Amino acid sequence: MKHTIALIVENKPGVLVRIAALFSRRGFNIDSLTVGATDKPDRARMTISVDGDEVVLEQVTKQLNKLINVIRVSELDPAESVERELAIIKVAAKKEDRSEIMQIVSVFRAKIIDVSPRSMIVEVTGSEDKVEAMVRLLRQFGIKEMARTGKVSMVRGSRIVGP
Amino acid sequence: MGKMSGAEAILECLKLEGVEIIFGLPGGVLLPLYDAIYDSDIRHILVRHEQAAAHAADGYARATGRVGVCIATSGPGATNLVTGIATAYMDSVPLVAMTGQVPTNLIGKDAFQEADITGITMPVTKHSYLVRDAKEIPRVFREAFYIARTGRPGPVLIDLPRDVTVNELDFKYPEIDLPGYSPNLKVHGLQIKRAAQALMEAERPVIYVGGGVKYSDGHRELVTLAEKIKAPVTTTLMGIGCFPEDHPLSLGMLGMHGTKYANYAVQESDLILAVGARFDDRVTGKIASFAPQAKIIHVDVDPAEIGKNVRVDIPVVGDAKSALAELAKVVEDKPWSPWNDKVAGWKSDHPLGYARDGDSIKPQAVLETICELCPDAVIVTEVGQNQMWAAQFFTHKDPKHFISSGGLGTMGYGFPAAIGAKLGCPDKEVFDIAGDGSFQMNIQELATAVVNEVPVKVIILNNGVLGMVRQWQDLFYEKRFSSTTLHRVPDFVKVAEAYGALGLRATKPSEIEPVLKEAIDSEVVTVVDIIISPDEKVSPMVPAGASLSEILELERAEGSGQFQKSYAGSAASEILELEG
Ligand SMILES: Cc1ncc(C[n+]2csc(CCOP(=O)(O)OP(=O)(O)O)c2C)c(N)n1
C-alpha cells in the first residue's frame, strides 16, 4: 500500500540526511522523495511516497515528527488530493516513427521540447499513472534517457499544509 | 553582555544552564576552549578515556536528574564518545556532548583528526548541531539543553570547529524558538477517563513500569495509584526503584531474568497499564504470546513508542508523572481481591533464591549483604550476570539509586558512571557492582577516581569468565566455552594498589561481611575482589524467543535435564536469533 506524506521542514543543512537516515535505520521503504522551496525562505517542503501498511505509516509519521527540524507531517489522502509528476524523456525517433510519437504526445497533452536527427525530448506532466502510461507507450521506439521528478502533492479545497 | 570569544560564550552558556561539572579530555582543536575552562568556576574532571567522560556524565545525570555534560576533541576523541552517547540514547538519559572539530575552512578536506561526528552519531542522538558561526553559540546551547532534558530526554551533540571557539560574538541568551519541537506533556483528559474506567473494570490488573517513571519523577504518584486500586507493580531494569520492592504489591522485575511471579502475573493479567516502558524484547519474551488475555493501556511521553512493538488498546501520550497523578485522582478505591491472593501465592511459592550451601562465595549473598549493611546505597552496575544479580538481590527502593545500562548493555559503563554518580551525590555511598570482564573495559578510570578523590566502591564479582556469555554456552552450546575464559588475570588488589586505591579481597563466605564493612568504612576509592565460581548462574530465565510463562529455574533444572528439554521444545531458530 502506497502512502503520500507531505513534510514541512526547516531549510537547513543536514535535514535531508536526517530524514533519509531515519528511513534506512527503521527499515522503511521510500518510493520517491522530492524537496523544494516554499514561500518562506527558511522552510522547505518534501513529498515522500512510502510503501507499507497502516502500522508502518503510523511509525513513519511519528518518527518523522520526532525530528527537531521537521515542522509538520501530514498524510495526504490520494482521493482528496491532486498530485503531479514531471518527466522528460529522450526517445529514439526514426523518420518513420516521428508522426506516431507526435500523436502520442498530443493525446497526452505532452510537449516536444527538443528535436534532433535521431531523437526527441518529450516533456510530460501529470499523475504518476499518466507518466507511467506515457513511458510505456514510448518504450516501443526506444527510450534513451529519462529524468523524473517524483511526485508533488496537495490536498484539494481549503485544507492547508503550509509552512 | 558585550563581546566575548566563542570559548567564553560556551562557558557562559554552561553557567546559565546551571552546569557545575563537566567530564572530558582535551586535544588540539580544543585548546582555546580548555584555556577558557582554566579560569572558569565549572569543575572539569579529566578522564583517562573519552568513553568514560560520556558514561560519567550519564551516571551524574541519572543520579541527580540533571543534564550531564562531556567533552572530547575532534577525530578519535569524538569517536571515543560514541559508545557513551549510544548508551545514553538507548536509556533516554539527558546529556550534552561537546566535540571539537577542525576549523570550518578545513571541514570536508580530510584534515588531521577530522571525523564527521554529527554524521556518525545521527542515529544515536536526539539531535545534533555543527556550529558554523560563533554567533550561533548561545542559541545552540540553549536549544541543546532544552532538547536534552524535555520530553523524552536524550543526548544532544554539539560539534565545535576550532575557529568558532576563537571568533568573537555579542553574547545574548535567546528565548527558545523551536517550531518543530513540542514535547507533549499535557495528557488527554478523555484518554485518562478511558484508562481509569478500564482499571476499575479489570479483575487482574498489572502495572508495568519503565524508566519513564524515573525520569518524570513519578514514583510517588505510582505508589498512590497502585495502593488505591491494589494493582501489583512490576518494573523493567530501567524502572527499578520506582516502586519499593518491599511493598506488598511489588512484583520486582519482569522479563528474561525477572521474577517468576512477575512473569506469571503479566501472562495471566486481563489489563496491563504500561507506564514509561517500551515493550523491549528482553521484557516481553515472545511477543505473540505476551500477556495474551490483557487489554493494554500505554502511557508514554514519546508517541512513537505507542504501538511500536505491541498493539495498544488505550494510548495515553504524556508525561508519566502527570498521567499517574490524573489516574490516581479519578479511580476509586478497590479492595484486596482474589487476584491479589493469587499473586501473593505465586510470590510465596516461587521466591527468588539460590543454593546457600557450599564453601564458595555466592554472588547473590554479596548483594544481600550490601543491602543489609547499606540499604540506601546507590547501586551502579556493569553488564552481565553481575547486573542481573544486582537487580535481583538488592532490595531497591529509590528510583535514582539503581543505575545500569539497560538498552545498549554496555560493558565498562558501570565504573565511570559510578564516578559520575558519586560526584553528583557526594553524601551517598556509591557501589559499582562489576564483573571482572566489564571492569577491565574502563579500569584506567581508577586514576580519575583516585586523583579527584571520588571514593566509589567497586565490588568485583570475580568469576574469571565472561559469565553471562558463558552461561549461554553452558545451556545452549554444550559447554563449549569459546573465548569466555579470562584466566583470572590481572590481580585486582595489586592493580588497585598500583593506582593508589585500596584493594581488598574475599575468597570465603565468612569474609564477605568483614570485607564489605571495611570497604564501606573506607574513605578512599576501594576495589573489592570477590572470588566466585565460574559456574554461578543467573536464574530464573526465560530463554530468548520463548514466552514469559516458560520461565525456568536453572539450579533445579540443571540436574534433571529439564531445562535442556524444554529448550529443545521451543523454536530453536527463534532462540538463537535473539541472543545478546
Ligand atoms: C562492550 C560489550 N562487549 C560485549 C558484550 C557482550 N557481553 C554481554 S555480558 C558479557 C560478559 C560480561 O562479563 P563480566 O563483565 O565478567 O560479567 P559477568 O557476566 O561475569 O558477571 C559480554 C561479553 C557487551 N554487553 N558489551
Give the overall pLDDT of chain B as a whole number: 94
Mind telling me which CATH architecture of the largest domain in chain B this is? Answer: 3-Layer(aba) Sandwich
- Please compute the radius of gyration of chain A using only Cα atoms: 18 Å
Question: CATH homologous superfamily name of the largest domain in chain A?
Answer: ACT domain
Supply the CATH class of the largest domain in chain A.
Alpha Beta
Structural class of chain B: alpha/beta
Which small compounds were modeled alongside the protein? Answer: thiamine diphosphate
Oligomer: heterodimer
- Shape assignment of chain A: elongated
Major sheet size, sense and barrel closure of chain A: 5 strands, antiparallel
Q: Give a count of the beta strands of chain B, DSSP E runs of length 2 or more.
A: 20
Number of helices of chain B: 25
Description:
The complex is a heterodimer of chains A (163) and B (580). By secondary structure, chain A is of the alpha+beta class. Chain A has two domains: 2-76, Alpha-Beta Plaits; 82-152, 2-Layer Sandwich (Alpha-Beta Plaits), CATH 3.30.70. Chain A contains four helices and nine strands. In chain A, strands 5, 6, 7, 8 and 9 form a five-stranded antiparallel sheet that branches. The longest helix of chain A is centred in the middle third of the chain and has 13 residues, at 54-66. Chain A is elongated, with a radius of gyration of 18 Å. In chain A, 25% of the residues are buried. The mean pLDDT of chain A is 94. Chain B is α/β, with parallel strands linked by helices and 580 residues long. Chain B has three domains: 3-170, Rossmann fold; 189-349, 3-Layer(aba) Sandwich (Rossmann fold); 363-531, Rossmann fold. In chain B, strands 3-2-4-5-7-6 form a six-stranded parallel sheet, sandwiched between helices. In chain B, strands 11-10-9-12-13-14 form a six-stranded parallel sheet, with helices on both faces. In chain B, α1 crosses α2 and α3 (50-64) runs parallel beside α4 (76-90). Chain B is globular and about 70 Å long. The relative contact order of chain B is 0.10. Residues 556-580 of chain B have low confidence and may be disordered. Classes of the chains: A alpha+beta (163), B alpha/beta (580). The A-B interface holds A 9-10, 13-14, 17-18, 21, 25, 55, 58-59, 62-63, 65-71 and B 118-119, 122-123, 126-127, 130, 147, 178-181, 302-304, 307-308. The structure holds thiamine diphosphate. Residues 382-386, 409-411, 435-438, 461, 463, 465-469 of chain B line the site of thiamine diphosphate (TPP). Chain A: Dimer of large and small chains.
